[in-house]
Amino acid sequence: MKEILTKEFNVFVGADSLTQLSELLIEKSYAKVFVLVDNNTKKYCLPLLKPFLAQFQLIEIKAGEIHKNIQTAQFIWQQLQDNNADRTSLLINLGGGVICDMGGFAAATFKRGIDFIHVPTSLLGMVDASIGGKLGVDFNGIKNEIGLFKHPHLIVVNEDFLKTLPKEELKSGFAELVKHSLVADKKMWYTLQTIEDITPESIKKYIYQSIKIKVKIVRKDPTEKGIRKALNFGHTIGHAIESASILKSRKPILHGHAIAVGMIVESWLSCQLNLLSTKDFNQIEKFLSLHFNRLVLDFDSKDLIKLMGHDKKNENGKIQFSLIHKIGSPKLKINCEQDLIQQALTTCLQLK
Asked: Do 48 and 119 touch, CB atoms closer than 8 A?
């Protein structure tokens, strides 16, 4: 088992991580323990967690980004209240990015805050959503519009949960591994390119490395005023695509797939602004297109640009991007005119 233990982070990664969780529960003697699941993690992941828990009460919500909203948060608060949770209670979030974001948000605001633990079951949750203290819900179709910063008491990363994932969910998390390499670890980027098939075994060794990258960046900039913005590479475009898919009441596009498309478009912008070489852009575009089938999008580019206007990186009414200067090196606070964004969407995604 590997550990990251700092003032802000208590992360345990590996086969014995659930044992560490069990020992902490004995040590802390919480008045009540609640486990938040969705209908998928209840079926596939709860059986792996149960042997490490004594008594607990289950809170179940529906799976999917479309349910990451204030109404679901209210349901979680109601369940905690109905079952007499107090400030000595604990909420364990067993699931992917949606469960970690929303469960943490519900716990951090219930009675002004109760302890919560993330047990991420998706690759996306393991390397991204569970790390960094960002919590929140979507609002009016805008990703993570309502939220706060609060670190979990413990993060338990057990790679055995990856075996429960559908292939597309595994690929969704892989996009965040790629992002971490492109903004912070050139060597990791070239190593990732040797992966021919995304499987739990082929990506397992990169999980701890990816977590270390995010922890290092977040510790330097906890509330995203500077270098942490680098972790938003691909997300200005990607989040707009996700939000558009939610607003159109279709099956939402998976986060990592939208971010993969976003990284292609934002790499093109980096190239046009003479930050990234054409050779590096072609390499990025080829690799991401190999693992992520080009999404067939029928969104209007003007609608996407309007959604980008809600991005939390924006300043003074201008759409701001976190791009890359070269592979492994980010370039922050880049203002892009709407005409150039329009050209990027037209060129890379064939959007009108």
From this structure: no
Question: Per-residue pLDDT for 74 more than 60?
Answer: yes
Which residues lie below 8 Å from residue 220, measured CB to CB, with a gap of 6+?
226, 227, 228
Helix %, strand %, coil % of the chain (to 5)? 55, 20, 30
Q: How confident is the model at residue 252 (pLDDT cuts 50, 70, 90)?
A: confident
- pLDDT tens per residue, range 262-287: 999 999 999 999 999 999 999 999 99
Residue 258 CB neighbour total at 10 angstroms: 28
Please give the structure tokens belonging to residue 121. Answer: 């079951």
Which is it for strands 10-13 and 154-157: parallel, antiparallel or unpaired?
Answer: parallel
Question: Tokens 């008491």 — which residue?
Answer: 153
Q: Residue 188: enclosing H or E segment and its boundaries?
A: helix 186-192
Burial (CB < 10 A; 0-12, 13-18, 19+), residue 57, is middle
Q: What is the pTM of this model?
A: 0.92
**Active site residue ranges:** 112, 134, 176, 214, 224, 228, 232, 235, 239, 255
Using the structure block, give the residue that is written with the tokens 């948000």: 105
Helix axes 255-272 and 235-247, enclosed angle (nearest 10): 140
